Amino acid sequence: MADDARSALASLPPLPAAFLEFLRENGLDPAMYSMADTIPRYIRLKPGMEPQIPEIESELKCRLDKVSWLPDFYAIPPEVHIAGSKAYQQGKIYGIDAASGAAILALDVKPGDHVLDLCAAPGAKLCMLADMLGGTGSLTGVDVAKHRLAACRTMLQKYSLGDRCRLFVADGTSFSILPVNSSLDSGEGSTDLKNNGNTFSEWTSKRSWKDRQKSKKAKIAGSPQPTSTSEPELIYYGKHSGLIGLRKCDVLRPSDDDEARSSGYDKVLVDAECTHDGSIKHIQKFEFWGWKTLDRRVLDAERTDDLLHLQLRLLANGFNLLKTGGSLVYSTCRLIISSHAIPIVDASSIVSHQKSFCVTTDGLPSNSLTVAQNENVVQQFLCKHPSAELQKINSADNWPCRSGSIFKTLRFDPATSQTSGLFVAKFTKFQT
Ligand SMILES: C[S@@+](CC[C@H](N)C(=O)[O-])C[C@H]1O[C@@H](n2cnc3c(N)ncnc32)[C@H](O)[C@@H]1O
After folding, report:
1. What is the whole-number distance in angstroms between the Cα of residue 125 and the centre of ligand 1?
2. Atom 25 of ligand 1 has which residue's CA nearest to it?
3. Which of 100, 225, 232, 421 could cross-link with 334 by S-S, CB 3.0 to 4.6 Å?
């Protein structure tokens, strides 16, 4: 252990034995948990705001250090808060970790793409996706938590990025609405748009009587989260999202896998739900919450295993909605925790249809739970989806990350990348 790390570890309150054991089993250095204070905070500058850097620096009272490997990203000291600043309130900057920015770049969004963000809230990545699309294509954000998705809506509007977006409260494991099909007859621009409630008219935040009744009922019933069988709820769509003038029944029609292969999304992001507790900054919060809650909130086997299955189902459904030739990026916070490793699938059974697949131990213990929760999800997914292939992330050559245990996957380690840490895998769908 380096001297810096040792002295940083000495300044930490004692970590509970169960957690130290977990770290040991996973080949993780406890010193990483003292690092959160030294990892910079990252902001992304809205394109076109570069001339305003001196003004932003003087307002935040710190230098904006350009991140050489990531366009429009700047590092600032971790203690600087941006939320109270004018630059933030006026939508010139937003906070997003550099590794998250890399996951978006990995998607390689092109003008005109139809993009799906299946776990969109609170929306930093969604905003970056909208920026990359500019005034082209379409962006669909989905999240199961309505209040979190409402925060996305606020963000899109604040940064004037919502024009081509639509936001659905829905369960991402079963969401099946495809991008707006250009063959549908849109009445946009027509003078006699019939607003009879069956077609989309311009979006308004005012809710209809029917919607208000529905949410009243939901409140009485305790506002249940959408389940895989509930209908998706559209809570926002932009002026140029292509919906205006279309019949609701056409747009909201569930699709099947065959249809998605030809008319699905060009790009899909599955930034899956994780415990969050794996990120260094989150683990540090237990210092304040009390280490006793760590067992219940992080190391609880049932909860974390449920999460693993959720990640797999989100990935599988995101892939179903991808069109042939399209790309999907799957990302999770790097260190997610389960008390039961899913058995590693025999690589030879995958090699038969995944020639590029290759497992290396990569310095991690073979029973590593971080591997179980990241690479194993990828492995299990590849086993079940013969039309999926891992893709090399070309832009990653200059990134401060390393290969994951599966060839072509990436890991951003906090210590070496100076980010909060992320696991990233990119897939493409080919014709079977
Ligand atoms: C890691 S966060 C996503 C962060 C987001 N991509 C961003 O950049 O701000 C994971 C999100 O997944 C959502 N989620 C959890 N289960 C889901 C499900 N079944 N369907 C859709 N979203 C889900 C959570 O509500 C949470 O907002």
Report:
1. 11
2. 145
3. 421
Closest atom of ligand 1 relative to the 100 alpha carbon: 8
What are the extents of the domains in the chain? 101-181+194-267
Predicted complex ipTM exceeds 0.90: yes
C-alpha to C-alpha distance for 77 and 42, rounded to whole angstroms:
9
The CATH class given to the 101-181+194-267 domain equals alpha beta
Query: Best of 100, 105, 119 to mutate for ligand 1, by most ligand atoms within 8 A of CB?
Result: 119
Phi, psi of 28 (to 5 degrees): -105, 140
Q: Is 364 in the pocket of ligand 1 (CB under 6 A)?
A: no
Taking only the tens place, the pLDDT of each residue in 288-304 is: 666 666 666 665 656 66
DSSP string for 232-282: PEEEEE-TTSS-TTSBHHHHT----HHHHHHHSEEEEEEE----STTSHHH
Please confirm, yes or no, whether 119 is among the known catalytic residues: no
Catalytic residue among 119, 333, 383, 401: 333
Measure Cα distances from 212 to 200, 205, 218, 238, 244 in Å: 18, 12, 10, 21, 22
pLDDT in tens, 192-201: 445 567 899 9
The pTM score is 0.84
Task: Show Cβ contacts of residue 29 under 8 Å, excluding neighbours closer than 6 positions.
Answer: 1, 5, 23
